[in-house]
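Something for you to look into today, if you have time. Could you write out one complete protein record for me, on any chain you like? The space below this message is yours for that.
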Amino acid sequence: MLIQTELKATLKRLRLSGMLATLPDRLAFARKDKLDYTDFLQLVLSDEVERRDHKHIETRLQDAGFDEECTLERFDWSAQIRIDKARLMDLFGLHFIERHENIAFSGPVGVGKTYLAQALGHAACRAGYRVLFIRTDALLKALARSRADNSFDRELRRFIAPDLIAIDDFGLRKLSGQASSDFYDLVVERHTRASTIITSNRAVDEWMAVFDEPLLGQSALDRFCHRAHQFVIDGESYRKRTAPSGKSEKLGTRLATGKAPGSSSATVDTDVGGE
C-alpha cells in the first residue's frame, strides 16, 4: 500500500519517519481486521516505541565500549571454574545498580572475570542504564592526559557519570602517586552514587600494595569494598582449553611457574594478565 507524500512529510517533520517501514503492513492489517481508529493508533505508536527502545539499546551498547558481545546466555558453564553461581545469578537482577553497590571479580587469567563484567554491563544497557567498560591503564592514561590541557574535571565527570562502570585488569602495574590520587578521586565521587565493577588477577587483600600512596589506597578501597559483592573465581583458563593443541600446555606451564618464553629465570611481565 502506497503512503501519500504529504503523510511522509508530516511523519518526518514530527520525527516519526521510522513508522514508514511498517506502516503499509499495519494499514493492511487494520483494514483486514477492521480495527477502529484508537486500536490502529495504539498499534503504530507501539511499533515506534519498540523501534526507539531498540535504537537506544544499540546506542548504549556501542557507547559502553565492550570488547565483544558478552551475555549471560552465552557464558560457557561447562568451563572448569569455581564460582558461587547462585550469588552471581542474583546480580543479573541488577538490584545492585539500584542500590549503588559494587562488584569485585578476582582470580587467575582466563577464568571469565572480564566476560562476566561485560555480561553484567550488557544486561544493564538493555535495562536502560548507562554503562562504560574500560581497562585500568586506559582510564588512568586518559585522566593523566587531561591534565595537560586542563580538562581533568571534565574527563573525570565522564567516568563518574555512568550508572555502571566496569574497570578491567586492576593491579597489573603499581600505580604512581598521581594515578593513586586519580583512582581515589574516581572511587570517592562514585561512592554511594553509582556502581563499579573491578576485575583483577590479584586477590582483593593484595590491592593495597598497588597504590604508591597507601593512605589514598586505604581510603579508596575502604569505600569500594564496603559496598562490594566480592567473587573469587578459580579454575582452568578458558584460553588454555581452547588453544591449538600442543601450545596450551607450554603456555600454561610458563604462567604457572612465572617463567617467560625462552627464559629459565625471568618472570612473566604483568601485561600477560589481560583478562
Observations:
- The longest helix spans residues 37-64.
- The radius of gyration is 24 Å.
